[in-house]
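Hi support team,

I'm opening this ticket because the web form for multi-chain structure prediction keeps timing out on my end. I have pasted the exact lines I submitted so you can reproduce it. The total is 1528 residues across two entries, so I didn't expect it to be a heavy job. Is there a limit I'm missing, or should I split the entries? Thanks in advance, R.K.
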Amino acid sequence: MRIFLCAVVLFALSSSVVAQAKGGYSQYVNPLIGTRRMGHTYPGATVPFGSVQLSPDTDEQPHNIGGKYNPETYRYCAGYQYDDTEIVGFSHTHFSGTGHSDLGDFLVMPTVGPLQMEPGKKGDPKSGFRSAFSHANETAEAGYYKVRLDDDNILAEVTATTRAGFHQYTFPASDDAHIVLDLMHGIYNYDDKNVWTYVRVVNDHTVVGFRQTNGWARTRIVYFAMEFSKPFSTYGFKEFAKQDYKGFWRKFGDQSKNFPEMAGKQLRAHFDFKTAASEKIKIKFALSPVSTDGAVSNLRSEIPNWDFEKVRNDARAGWDRELGKIAVTADSRDDLTNFYTAMYHAFLSPTVYMDTDGRYKGVDQNIHTAKGFTNYTTFSLWDTYRALHPLLNIIQPTRNRDMVRSMMAHQEQSPEHMLPVWSHYANENWCMIGYHSTSVVADAIATGNLTGPEANKALDAAVQTAKTGYYDGLEYYMKLGYVPEDKNSSSVSKTLEYAYDDWAIAQAAKKLGRNAIYTEFLKRSENWKNVYDPTVGFMRPKDSSGKFLAKFDPLKTEGQGFIEGNAWNYSLYVPHDVDGMIASMGGRGTFSQHLDQLFSMHLPDEFFAETEDITRDGIIGGYIHGNEPAHHVAYLYDWTSDRWKTQERVRMILDHQYKAAPDGLGGNDDCGQMSAWYIFSALGFYPVAPSSGRYMLGSPAVKTAVLKLENGKTLTIEARGQGQKNVYVSKVILNGQELSRDFLTYSDIASGGRLVFQMTDKHL
Amino acid sequence: MRIFLCAVVLFALSSSVVAQAKGGYSQYVNPLIGTRRMGHTYPGATVPFGSVQLSPDTDEQPHNIGGKYNPETYRYCAGYQYDDTEIVGFSHTHFSGTGHSDLGDFLVMPTVGPLQMEPGKKGDPKSGFRSAFSHANETAEAGYYKVRLDDDNILAEVTATTRAGFHQYTFPASDDAHIVLDLMHGIYNYDDKNVWTYVRVVNDHTVVGFRQTNGWARTRIVYFAMEFSKPFSTYGFKEFAKQDYKGFWRKFGDQSKNFPEMAGKQLRAHFDFKTAASEKIKIKFALSPVSTDGAVSNLRSEIPNWDFEKVRNDARAGWDRELGKIAVTADSRDDLTNFYTAMYHAFLSPTVYMDTDGRYKGVDQNIHTAKGFTNYTTFSLWDTYRALHPLLNIIQPTRNRDMVRSMMAHQEQSPEHMLPVWSHYANENWCMIGYHSTSVVADAIATGNLTGPEANKALDAAVQTAKTGYYDGLEYYMKLGYVPEDKNSSSVSKTLEYAYDDWAIAQAAKKLGRNAIYTEFLKRSENWKNVYDPTVGFMRPKDSSGKFLAKFDPLKTEGQGFIEGNAWNYSLYVPHDVDGMIASMGGRGTFSQHLDQLFSMHLPDEFFAETEDITRDGIIGGYIHGNEPAHHVAYLYDWTSDRWKTQERVRMILDHQYKAAPDGLGGNDDCGQMSAWYIFSALGFYPVAPSSGRYMLGSPAVKTAVLKLENGKTLTIEARGQGQKNVYVSKVILNGQELSRDFLTYSDIASGGRLVFQMTDKHL
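Hello R.K., no limit was hit. The queue was backed up. Here is the completed structure from your submission:
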């Protein structure tokens, strides 16, 4: 009680910046963070977990040029690069922070003057419908984006609801104003990516259609409905692909003008207007995974009127509501910006994937109805099982439970009978490794957020997934206890991650009293030992005869049995048996020094280049924060006698790897995983092994934080004596009792109360 | 009453062949009729108006070779040519008698021995999975087809329900038996016709998927579910198209074997078995316009068991029931074969296009539910408005009404807001000319088969259709009163047919008391006069300045303002104002001589070749029966004082143009139009102007016929004194009263009763 009063006094006297509901938490969100270099975030408008991400694309790089991979593609995973000076248009679907991509559906661009049906060349905005812009005329907020398109002096504003984008273009006076709808445009556009597109002009202000692609998602189709606030006077299409067969459509003569139906592989449409000075033309643009009828219905139910400001305000209010689930105070506005932008990024995906009536397309390509849950898609699980889902399991348990239900539906519909690996838009894209859905499922079960028959069914789905022999070396793993490098590359990474996932399954089985599964998978979780080579002190690839590969360089990634991380980073991936790992690596002291070496070493450029996904800023010594495999590593000091080093490293990473600037992310945000790391670490704890129910203590960066839990309870965190130099924690007091352990439990958090970190500038 | 008794005596004494229910009418059906040369019928298994037409394809000709049209394509409109000696496999969808094509979905072929995944080359059956066969080992019946596949000594049998095919393959003993599923195969296959295909192996005996094409139908997708009676031991796929992007699927390594999911543009799958001698492997194969789930559901509800004979018997019983709607006696078995095969062909399409739950894909590409009607597709209306729909309007009024309802749904869903022109599988293909749905609609309204608000709505849809300015010269037609050849080719054909269609709309408007529409469209129906050139006595193309084109040859078709018929044939197309036409052509006598000249002239080969769709057998003099534009012409003598010539010509056409042999059709059957001509004419009357409610009298070819009407009434037709030479009708007695008019009314037929033709060998 005393503590509480004291805290109130502290709050009142504090010079810290208080984030509060009054101005709304959205004021601390800067969607431009991560848009420069490798963050791969997008600056446009979306609502929490929204299906629509309506955002400017600054270029469209083909995936291949002359049949070869175009490395520039990678920079445009989210369509926008901060250093670009032109906007091609506004498309409706974007991943946030991914390191491979897809989407960019339905690019819309307003223009005036002679109609241009090509985007034009980069650097020459007059060569097409693209336009120059400058950041001086750009505003990006949670749920709202505005920019002046300099070429034609058009003010573009966009906002969104869950399933619809809302455009508002303020035109100059013109007899020749256009809105281009580009169905060719896309992100990661292969030569042949568009499988089919279809457009139907329903009347002089309504257009529907779909785009079907073959890319990261092999069989993907997105439907749209588009409504204009003002009838277009004329309209037309252009087909940019050769059509083998035009058939009897030729009887209509020229169908490129005012003909209400068009289908083909490479279509662009235009809608023409006369505009008065400062006239606003608005467009509602809804998506559906089911049909154009579904899109029309989504559009009508989510944006019934033409009140752009209302939709914008609603979007912002929605963000304020979600962001407010954690109310923090911090030392600087930048810290708040980093925190709430991380929250914003963490709440972008998975995205809602169903019509307002609950219907969605399943991975079996059939239409299903989500009964009793909200269906989600965009599961970047190799990334997000680490911290994002554990975070959602705390602060968004209903959503996280529905995400698990979405994964279970996926498993039921899956031809391979597997939980998702990396899934989006009714497709499994199989990206990266492991079967980390099992961890998300297990975390929900182990923490009691998924219970009863449903939990048992989810466990069965996880077991089924983990026994899918033909999946990525799993047959060998099950037979030999490891993935042999001669049979399947990146074999060590796979072995380590399978072992962790198996342990997670065991935890869920334990919780549910399914002892046979528990025993079987606990045994499997020890498989990490099979790839540890004590002679070198690293995990190391073995061949199928059981021999370690002779050639081995722990600094290198490529060809060394790892993926997106070298042995220095990846060898530490035994989150479920850190004690065992430390023992095998020579004990606590040696291990602590090993970690020190990682954080202080120099990673030569030649090896760094292979780690992918990160900029030079994304590493500290040899520790690679810009990619996921080592995200738990700073917390491993907690298992040594040097826990202060966890505290120091975490604060260093928070300081160095996250900045309140467009280049503020040192690597891909990866659908919120990088941001979830920030949120946990800034609060003072981190789930090293999800489904353990344990959150290892670090060093909070906030001054205070109030977690408003769905169960009505609140957990108040206070970093007493917080300061730039006070990165060490002298003691932790939970509800008035000093904590004798180095972790919180899920129950500690869920029960609410008060958690005080006593901060100091001296480590023990 | 006396007449009736007399007739009974006559029947008993007659030597005529009596078609009766006892053996079943199906015994007179020979599905091979029309499979040689230009009939374009298929011999396989289907049920009346069934969605599935499971039939052998004897070759697969690509539409283009080296980028150029391959004229051989045309011969394979129905997949089967009688003179071929090999079968490539059995595919599930076929048009009957069309002169352009599509479909051929999901080819299935059983083989033994080393797996062959290519069909192989024509003439070399060992080069692929195709097999030699001979007609000696072939049986084609209504609802059943059997053939021995000689290469591997496999007996293939197929039958069908409305939405499912049922295969039964009797194998030799083999350790290496296969069933190939070819998703590349198709009819009228353009290089790029397959847009996407998808296959999912659900378990060891169930496979689902879809094929999406861009061809005659621009955006077509057909879903399937396939169930084997015996689990396959192994299975695999092959993708024959280059795939730009394989993505992370590579982690599965070789997916060509026992991997449950495949998608791409050019797929073939195989399923492998060990078979004992004479072991039967059966396959149920259902289609759906909605989804693979829909196909599974159709499969389960239509073929719940593995009883092939039951399904075969049910199919035949279904045919017996439908064929029995007209019970005829005739002089020869061939006449019965011709009659009932014509009935069979007339009852093949339009085809049911919805799942058992009533759901179907609309032309707007959305899924709709047919409420209160059966939804149909495959509307070859330029052909079938003439006689097929009028026939159905008499003998299948419920189906014909539902076909009208299907057209109305199409119009509601149509981006162009038009009733169908030529539609199939949720697509409008726009083939041929006119807007003849309006005639089908008007016929149903004018005869009282469509009434009330629904009739008014249908009339509105017809008017909307007829006022679609951008449709095929219609804007000019509405402005100038004719289609000008310099603006739109085949302008005379279009003008004439629009004029007739307009008259049909007027008849419906009259029936419904919609006087403004009646007046407007009756006026439009006079537009035929605008293309009649009295100086040459033919219809003749005009340019937009109102001048007839100088160059004109009434024997030629190409470039003369006509399509699929020259001026000699097409100029007679004023079915709704024959008196007016005769008057303008110089009166009855002159007109009769004009017709004589047509039937006796010689059409030089060079001009004949241009008329398309027919063999030399398809013409009589210059009269072209093998194509539709002149189908009413033999009946035009009814308007002269030489009605006997109608009688003579009709009997001559019945004799010469229809034979009980594979080459029995002189031209494309055109979805039953050629056959419907036969049925009407064999019964003694023909609808020269549908929606007039009049059926012009000819000369019956049957001895007796009993039409069993849906209203419970029967019309008994008796050709008293019928014989080979007795082709003339001395009098017609309806219900005991001699008929003083040269036509029957719809009411005469629908009221039932007795119609006696007194036949004689001398004309008046």
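A quick check on our side: Confidence is low (pLDDT under 50) at residues 1-14 of chain A. Let us know if the file doesn't open in your viewer.
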